[in-house]
């Protein structure tokens, strides 16, 4: 709801490019990052969208260059998700939106093992995701209500906030797990 016509969209972890194609067809300028070359090649071939295939740390993108940045089920795979969020903030336009979605560590699952996946380096709750954003100078965008661990961020004009871990947070997450048998 906050996108203007012709917005510059960057999809961080664009997979095979379907989202970029939808955004392009809606009139936006799109760029994607997909480290998997086969996915990136498919996106370029099938949809004619720009997809860069290299590690995110090697990207040289313009500061403030994007009105919308999406990271849909990407941060949980990264060894340094907070560092990645700081970089995304740098690429975000002054009034831009960073949309992040990650698996919710507090979601109810039938079995304990369903909370974990071998490719997920990190697990988030809404609190830990928001804390990570605040630590790098982001704030929850008041125009878009968070839904669990789907959160829209904006730049915080005050910059990064000092965060302190709340000891009870670990107990809240642990209470969601059932006893492994």
Question: What is this structure's SSE topology?
Answer:
Blueprint: E1 8-12, H1 18-25, E2 29-33, H2 37-47, E3 50-52, E4 66-72, H3 81-91, E5 92-101, H4 126-135, E6 138-140, E7 150-155, H5 168-176
Parallel strand pairs: 1-2, 1-4, 2-3, 4-5
Antiparallel strand pairs: 5-7, 6-7
Task: Briefly say what this structure is.
By secondary structure, the chain is of the alpha/beta class. The chain has helices spanning 18-25, 37-47, 81-91, 126-135, 168-176; strands spanning 8-12, 29-33, 50-52, 66-72, 92-101, 138-140, 150-155.
Kindly state the percentage of residues in helix.
25-40%
Q: Main β-sheet: number of strands, strand sense, barrel status?
A: 7 strands, mixed
Q: Strand share of the residues?
A: 15-25%
Oligomer: single chain
**What does the overall shape look like?**
globular
Mean pLDDT: 87
Structural class: alpha/beta
Low-confidence stretches: none
Using only CA atoms, what is the Rg?
Answer: 17 Å
Question: What separation lies between the terminal Cα atoms?
Answer: 45 Å
Helix and strand string, N-terminal first?
EHEHEEHEHEEH
Compute the number of helices. Answer: 5
């Amino acid at each position: 709801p906050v996108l203007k016509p012709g917005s510059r969209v960057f999809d961080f972890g664009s997979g095979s490019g379907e989202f970029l194609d939808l955004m392009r067809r809606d009139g936006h300028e799109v760029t994607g990052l997909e480290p998997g070359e086969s996915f990136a090649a498919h996106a370029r071939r099938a949809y004619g969208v720009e997809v860069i295939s290299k590690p995110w740390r090697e990207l040289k993108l313009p500061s403030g260059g994007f009105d919308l940045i999406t990271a849909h089920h990407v941060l949980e795979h990264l060894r340094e998700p907070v560092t990645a969020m700081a970089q995304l903030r740098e690429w975000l336009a002054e009034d831009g939106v960073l949309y992040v979605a990650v698996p919710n560590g507090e979601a109810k699952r039938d079995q304990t093992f369903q909370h974990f996946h071998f490719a997920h380096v990190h697990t988030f709750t809404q609190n830990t995701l928001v804390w990570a954003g605040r630590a790098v100078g982001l704030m929850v965008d008041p125009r878009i209500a968070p839904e669990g661990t789907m959160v829209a961020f904006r730049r915080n004009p005050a910059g990064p906030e000092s965060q302190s871990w709340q000891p009870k947070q670990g107990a809240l997450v642990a209470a969601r797990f059932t006893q492994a048998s």
